[in-house]
Amino acid sequence: QVPVEIPEVSNDYLWEALFIRLKEVLSNHKGIIYEQEYWGKIFSECVSKYIYNIRDIVRLINALNVKADMIGEEVNFADLVAITIIELKLPQLYRWIKANPSRLFGGENEFFRLYGKKADEIKKNNLSEMTILAGDKAEDYFALLNLLFPYYASQTGSGTYYSDALLRRQQRIGHEDVFKRYFALEVDEKTIS
Questions:
Q1: What confidence tens digit (pLDDT) does each residue in 78-132 have?
Q2: Pairing with 41, which of 3, 49, 123, 171 sits 20 to 30 Å away (CA)?
Q3: CA 134: distance to chain centroid?
Q4: Within 13 Å and on the Cβ side, how many CA atoms surround 10?
């Protein structure tokens, strides 16, 4: 029982290992949509904040391989990476996203909830909701939601102009018609006895 101290892996080595594995996933799934600029945003706001070690990389790549085999040609690579990281590392946010599509895309109930409210009031309410969910990580969760879901960001003036047609063409999770694809591999809780 001799303790052995293992040095921490440098970020350079960590990202190099991650990128090699991600390139393998991309090369094995030629039909998956990859956008360089969008990937850069996902990397800085999600990947770099929640991948800490080689074990995280292995878990992410294993999950991505399974998902890409099943739904790769129906989704956007960057969003698939982001939602998989959220599923593995931020399960409470993952469950919130899955349970609240009307908050992310609008609808009649959302219209009445927001009616007459100013952007700063909506932002305060949304941040308050994330604080209940995540405590001191509320700002990070809020930033992730704003990045992945342009309609959600537009409510508070946090987002920029976006095109529904472009989101659909790029098969982004931020388009209502594409959203369910990212959860296609979920087991319905009602089916479990």
A1: 999 999 999 999 999 999 999 989 888 877 677 666 677 787 777 788 778 888 8
A2: 123
A3: 15
A4: 3
Beta-carbon contacts of 152 under 8 Å, excluding residues fewer than 6 positions away, are: 103, 104, 126, 145, 146, 159
Residue written as token pair 């809020």: 142
Distance CA 55, CA 77 (A): 21
Residue 54, pLDDT above cutoff 80: yes
Q: How far apart are CA 126 and CA 108, in angstroms?
A: 18
Tokens of 21: 């594995």
Sign of CA dihedral 93, 44, 170, 106: positive
Q: Which residues of 84-118 are buried (b: 16+ CB within 10 A; e: fewer)?
A: bbbbbbbeebbebbbeebebbbbeeebeeebeeee
Model pLDDT, residue 193:
54
Q: What angle do CA 41, 45, 51 make, to 5 degrees?
A: 115
Who's near 79: CB < 8 A, 6+ residues apart?
Answer: 42, 148, 171, 172, 173, 174, 182
Q: Is 33 helix (H, G, I), strand (E, B) or coil?
A: strand
Residue-wise pLDDT for 61-82, tens only, equals 999 999 999 998 999 999 999 9
Reference 135, options 88, 90, 100; nearest CA is 90
